[in-house]
Design brief:
The protein is α+β, with helices and mostly antiparallel strands. It is built from 2 helices and 5 strands. Strands 1-2-3 form a 3-stranded mixed sheet, with helices on one face. A two-stranded antiparallel ribbon has the order 4-5.
Length: 96
């Protein structure tokens, strides 16, 4: 998230929106939204996340745990998977 946000022109540190579900950052071309759906108890809880504004106004919507949002989650343009490498300081990024 940090690297993607920086690439989109976000100058502030991107932090996890675990308890607020959504963080909005100002990017170079427009808002960048970071969503964390891990704490959703039911997919219908995602209805309260104001998808219309996020998709209309945002340059990017980066969504963690999208499977928990069910049908409310928009079809991804790019799906990324992160994993640990043999070196604990490195991570693997895979486009799925």
């Amino acid at each position: 998230m940090q690297a993607i946000a920086r690439g989109l022109g976000v100058e502030t540190a991107a932090t996890s929106p675990t308890y607020t579900y959504v963080h909005r950052y100002d990017g170079r071309r427009g808002p960048v939204f970071h969503l964390d759906c891990y704490r959703l108890r039911h997919p219908d809880d995602a209805a309260d996340l104001d998808w219309e504004s996020i998709l209309r106004d945002g340059d990017a919507a980066l969504i963690e745990w999208p499977e928990r949002g069910g049908a409310w989650i928009p079809t991804p343009q790019v799906r990324l998977a992160l994993d640990y490498a043999d070196d604990p300081e490195r991570r693997l990024l895979e486009m799925a």
